Amino acid sequence: MSIVLEIKILNISHNKFTMPFLKNLKTTELENYTKAILPFGATEQHGPFLPLGTDSVIMEGILVEIEKGYSQLVILPNIEITCSQEHAGFTGTMWVSQKTMQAYLVDILNSISNTFDEIYFITSHGGNVEFLSRFAEENKVFAGMNIYYINTEVEEIDSVLRQELQGEIDEHAGNLEISTMLYLEEDLVDVPPSNYPKTTIAMNWSKPVIVQSKTGIVDNNPQWIISKELGKKFVEMSAEYIIKQIKFPS
Q1: How far apart (Å, rounded) are the C-alpha atoms in residues 122 and 160?
Q2: Is 203 exposed, middle or buried, given 0-12, 13-18 or 19+ CB atoms closer than 10 A?
Q3: How many domains in the chain?
Q4: 132, 79 Cβ separation under 8 angstroms
Q5: What is the mean pLDDT of the segment spanning 129-150?
Q6: What is the domain extent for residue 227?
Q7: Rounded mean pLDDT of the chain?
Q8: 37-to-73, 77, 147, 187, 194 alpha-carbon distances in Å
Q9: With 0-12 CB in 10 A as exposed, 13-18 as middle and 19+ as buried, what is 193?
Q10: What is the per-residue pLDDT for 17?
């Protein structure tokens, strides 16, 4: 009886990985795909309530949601150590320079240039936005592939979020990110007590976060407004927007 039960558990586990993530595909299965997403997360401080891998977990949650609605592309491995130098000084934060990212990304793209025609960069970490958007603009065609950067910080999403939050969207480790992680990985989240203080910060992202926010939180919304429903809405809206951009690239 115990042997039969073990076989069933293994089958359930296997069925979780049937989506076209590159790590789950065989070389012979790639012939039917011409488009790929290259995702970027981060490993950096997210205050006292969220784990260091928050951006990477959120990125993966959005990728899974994308696959529910659009399976005609391959998801490349999520890059989890990226441009997080602004969070240096907080224990556990890992980062590489833009120069290192540039060299690494060039090698990655060269390695897959014989496999895909279109590559789409997406990121859940704001510190990657300037680098990725500039790289895509300067390398619209790279080694025969069309390169696109999809920016998800757009008004059609932000306007809905501001309405849900009854005010400002957090810049880092506040209401929205806590809500999203609560939806995706509840066990990794500590919900802040209602009386945990919030401090208004005129954030300058060209300066170290640690000298502007000792807690690492940057959220100028005066209230704690946290819910799984908000996190779910954000993930679904982000995935829907990305799908639209891939079907109809600008």
Answers
A1: 20
A2: middle
A3: 1
A4: no
A5: 97
A6: 22-247
A7: 91
A8: 7, 9, 10, 28, 39
A9: exposed
A10: 37
